[in-house]
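User: My collaborator sent over this chain with a note saying "see what the structure looks like." That's all I know about it. Can you take a look?
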Amino acid sequence: MDDVSWKTAVESRLDFLQRENLDLKAALKNILRENENIRSEFEAMKNILRKHVQDTDEKCNRNMKKSANKEIHTSVEDEFGIDPERDGQRVARIVPPSTSTISSIAFYSYLSKNSGPITAHHTLVYDVSHINRGNGYNKNDGIFIAPVSGVYVFHFSVCIGGSAYASFEILVNGEVIGAVNEESHTGMGYREGSNLVVTFANSGDHVFIRTQRSTIGYVFSNDMCKTSFSGWFLTN
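Assistant: Without extra context I'll predict from the sequence alone. Here is the result:
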């Protein structure tokens, strides 16, 4: 190869290398630009993720606080029947506080025969139990024992005839809460008196009927009239 040809070949090679170098620089520049874009996108994604995590934490905290407040609210309302968000006003309950069938407590009993005279402070034993839902009444001793705490209604009656007098009283654990008396004279036929009381009784309280004083004549309980004792659960 002569000098001219060699020089031409070298210049051509150098020119090729220069162009390739320029292309590599351009490619490197593009790579650096893309790397910067990726870095920017990564930072943006990181910020978005950080914001999402913060929002999620705040939402969880709000929900936990709301749930805790709701539990406190429910506990207060269940315990006292009061909605704390309504200025302490009493509100109706949608769900009863107990699932037990306390509303089925009821009894009705009466004397199976005429009796008398009866001494003072004698507990009446109504030996015929017509109904005794909840098994609170005992026909063997005449005492009703409250199965659950709550408000109860009690009714008791006395039937006499001829020349007679009788006075009965109802007691809760020995405390008199009501009374009835009736008087009749010869030729008046049957005379019947009764009383109804509403009272609160705790679970296990004893409720019974007794004479206030000695009766005069007979206390009747037959097909014509019944000397009876009854009661039922009203509300808690």
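A starting point for your reply to your collaborator: Residues 1-95 form one domain.
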